[in-house]
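Lab notebook, page 48
Experiment: co-folding of the full assembly
Goal: obtain a model of how the components sit together before planning crosslinking
Operator: M.T.
Materials (sequences as entered):
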Amino acid sequence: MKKINLLFHLTLLLGLLFTACEEDDTQLIPDEDSEKITSNITENTTWTSGKVYVLGGRITVLDGVTLTIEPGTIIKGEAGTQANSTALLIARGGKLVAEGTAEKPIIFTSVADEIQPEDITAGNFESPNLDADINGLWGGVILLGKAPISASNESGDVSETQIEGIPTSDQNGLYGGNEAEDNSGILKYISIRHGGTNIGAGNEINGLTLGGVGSGTVIENIEIVANQDDGIEFFGGTVNVKNLVSWNVGDDGVDTDQSWGGTLTNFIVVTPAGHCFELDGPEGSMEAGHIIQNGTIIASEGTRISQDLINVDDNSIVGLKNLFFTGISEGQQINRVTAAGVTFEGIELDVTEEDLAGHVNGDVPTGVSAVSSPTVGADTSVFGWTWASKAGKF
Amino acid sequence: MRYLFSIFFSFITLLSVAQNGKIRGTIVDDKTGETLVGVAVLVKGTTTGTASDLDGQFTLDVAEGSYDLQISYISFQTLTVGDVQVKAGEITLLDNLRMKESTLELGEVVVSAEVIRTTEAALNTIKKQSASILDGISSEKIRLTGDNTAVEAARRVTGVSIEGGKYVYVRGLGDRYSKTTLNGMDIPGLDPDRNSLQMDIFPTNLMNNMMVSKNFTADMPADFTGGLMNVETKDFPEDKIVSVSLSTSFNPDMHLNSDFLTYTGSPTDFLGFDNGTRGLPSGADQRVIPTPISGHSQQEVVDFVRSFNPELAASRKTSLPNYSASFSLGNQISLNGDKKLGYIFSVSYKSEYTWYDNIVYGEYQRYIDPDLYEMRYATLQNGEMGEQNVLVGLLGGVAIKTTFSKLRLTAMRLQNGESRAGKFEIDNDGQAVGQSGYFATSDNLEYNQRSLSNVLLNGVHVFKNSGWEIDWRLSPTFSTSDDPDIRKTAFTHSSNGSSFNAGAGGNPTRIWRSLGELNAIAKLDVTKKYTLNDREAKLKFGVSHTYKYRDYEILLFDIQFFGGQSWPDPDPSTVLNPENIYPNRPNSIYYQSGNIYPNPNAYRSNVNNTGIYISNEFELFPKLKTIVGLRAENYVQKHTGRDQRYASGDTKNGQNLDNEKVLGSFDLFPSVNLVFSLTDDQNLRASYARTIARPSFKELSFAQIIDPVSNRIFNGSFFTYPGWDGNLTETRIDNFDVRWELFMKSGQILSMSAFYKKFDNPIELVRIPEQQTSTEYQPRNVGNGRLYGVELEFRKDLDFISPAWSHFNLNGNFTFVESLIDMTEIEFKSRKSYEKTGETIKDTRQMAGQAPYVINGGVSYNHYESGFDAGLFYNVKGPTLSIVGAGLFPDIFIKPFHSLNFSLNKKIGESKNTTIDFKVSNILNARTESYYQSYHAENKPYSQMSPGRKFSLGVSYRF
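Observation: model returned without errors.
Model output:
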């Protein structure tokens, strides 16, 4: 047995030597109109319309560098999990200028998605081969900025911390600062799909992660489909987001942490597997609140049932306004109405009067009511370009 | 194996036909305790005679009868041993013949054979005379006590603490500053990341002695600071050994427990290795593995998923009691002329069941609010875990010697397999910083198999009476440590059912880890004895070279779901049922690779360490022995590895090391030891030495190693953070010792020491503060450190109370240490920012790994004439900082473990060939605990488990 073991290890050693030199490229490459990106973006770069860009790893747009993505461009992440996950990371000081249009949106998806630029030109924005609940095929888009965050890391009360989803060994994952008006670029008409692969328990990549992103950044008309983790997650910052769809995500529809100080206006959350809203409070002494308004939430459909309608912590600071919850199942609740910093205004639940109390953990606060037809909610007319809309989800 | 046995048995048979009897003895210098070479031994009134060999040993073949031996040597008084009884076919042992230097009035010393047996052991003289502070236990003593393994024998050495029933530490300094060697060679243990060798594998009947040095002399490797323990195996057993021992132990909390957790494993698990059942499925190490999106066919994906073992659940089975068996054999044979052949062989087998029914792992945080003192939890895990451990040991050796030369070859093979199965509940609090909040239950299956194969070739040559001696050693060791197919399956439970959630309990994962290490040492020591000012002096010099090579790799796979998930009955045992495998919806399971090529979680490292030394031991003035030495070591560690960024294709910003030097220095290690003999039995010692502690292979790497049970992640030091530049360097230590010691008859001792150690760039395990979601650590150089300590040590017979107490012996060692680390600016600031109301943060703190006190005490009763020995031993270490926190994350301490153990050995039968032993360990039923500590807050668990009380019964028979 000694011999066998020794031999085994010798062969293992040899094997290692050889595999190091071996190149095995059976990975699916869509076609000749694609470009594989394997290293960080260190100078201003434009990804042009009509092409497919393949993310070969975690690609970072470095401080001081702008990545421009033209309308109709498709970005596909290679498969992988944990250390092997792909993502587009915009480091602090870097900029992403990705201005799609309703006619030519920019699509982030997996290499497994057979969607091609021609499909976009033809107005077919949905995936030709992947169902709208297939997730975890790649990572996601992470935007980091220098706006204030309420974090308490070892330096106590300040500055910067590491974004979840990126190993701390990568310094480009740091975010936060004191520039409330920081500008991380422009994101318009972007659909992010099938991502959210995990890098370890409790450590995952959201569809769109916004860490310390400042109010100088423009983010509107964004769709997240089938992300394995949260649809959109805010870590502090001051950025405002308008016209958002979060559909079939594996965890929370909208997640906020570290005293995000912006406003989310006009959005639709459809059947996340976690909470529809997971809204946390400050983690440091900086205290800012955010406003979430004019939204429609479909909390269940068939076997897809979300957890809490709203989940807040005791120290959360959130103004919730004009939200319409429909598709409410038994057991789904507004969890915690005692948090002093959380206000409810025009929150309408599509349930009967007598059932209303069962959907609130605690006394039903003023501002929360049962309705049979809504008087509040999202203006869905702006979402015609989304896959969710084309799939008839609202 | 059977073949081997038959060879050895035929040896024994051959020997037993001899009709003569034998007298075998060892001759030592009464003053120094050292053996004497070339001493003439004559059977009085006959022409039969011989001379002692280089080990001071001799053998005489004589017919049955009673003899007087005359032992003479130049400048020593002639020693006559009277009335030596010899029986046919038996060996009469005189292993303690002490010769006194001749004085002016030449005379003869006459003693009886009976007196020889009770003379003070040479070891005690060696201790008294030794240049370094030395303690130990000799084979003679072990023969009297009846201890079975080295670890039991080590308990009798004062100042030694036993950890985990197998590791031996000195003075409360942790593994980083301790070292164990086998036959003087620095060989890796079964756990290659430890400096210490486990001691429960050496049968005492094949052990010559075990010595502990508490300070450095130039002939030792420079990388120890607390203590060096050396185990020397026998080369020429004094008499024939054929012995068998069996033992069993029962832990009422753990054994015959029907809740015990296990899993199927492989049919060869009982031999300590996996037969391949847990091997990596073929194709899994490819860059692209079959997935629904890889371009492989559906059948290929299905086949690939099915090629993984579908067992993911821990299952319950009744645990058995522990049992072990060993067989050992040894003898020496006289060949033609003055040649002797010695051999030893042993095989041992051990099977242990460990069951923890309430393991706790906690992650706690501090509040930033200075008035909130209590800590809050981020994650709390509770669970049960069953472990089955098998250890197979083979040890063999042959040696041949003439009067002036000796050549020996020893070989050792250890095979160890540990299978673990656990079930845990994981409660994560979303209100804690960086946490998302979830509840999950996990099933964990693990297997760790380790092996060690070591060969030692050793030659000793003495140049007649010239005083020159050459000792050379070559020792290659090959070791492996593999964790094939670590499985973790954690369902996340929520109000609307259970599923696998990447952002909560995580997707099911499987990990393969493998480690191979080669360690080759060559060493040459030359000794010259001479006289200086008419007093004995000794010059020693030598060279050594160590080459180490390690190859390490981790491969990881995640279970993914192509589409949604639905688990109406969340049961890990059904997760990989065919109906859940791709393309069967809704679960549609496939595997995704977590591996990048080249793998950032793989490395190859090597070390070349060349040492050269010279030391001189002399008495410039009477009664003042001085040993000065200088050692030089040229150490170069090279590393091949890369970080994730490089591996992901970012060759510009990523880091890649291709056999690059990551640690390298040429160091001088001076040492001065002064021994002043106040009286014949009192010494005053003072010493200074410089030593070193170097980071390990794992510490100097980009590896990120997760413990799937606790979810904690070890990070290599190469990753940089604010306040950490990624350059881990060695620690240089200045050691100062003073000691007064009093030696009394039959090994009794009283000593008091004071010591001071200064640490330049000590390495400690630090919690990475930037990582708030997962619990991650990294070894770093923290600020400089120093420690002051006092030590009181005694071993005393209680005959002074009354003769009735003369068989009682009390021993104790008390060490008290004040250790201080000067915090780095960043550590001080981060502690300061979390300063609580009323708390004053100082810029110094306790050193990690150093206990503030260590108490060892034991009382034993020995009645050697009737073969009875019993002892009660107690050991505790003060609260020891284990992982350095700061800011949000509190410090982690190891709680004192009050270890109280009882052992009893009784030899029975007419010739006392049978020994029965009975032991109770952990009488106080102490728990193994470490905890988070914060100002004015209740301590919170970091980890907790109960080893329980254990009763063992063993019998050994010597043929």
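Interpretation: The CA atoms of residues 77 and 288 of chain A lie 35 Å apart.
Next step: discuss with group before ordering constructs.
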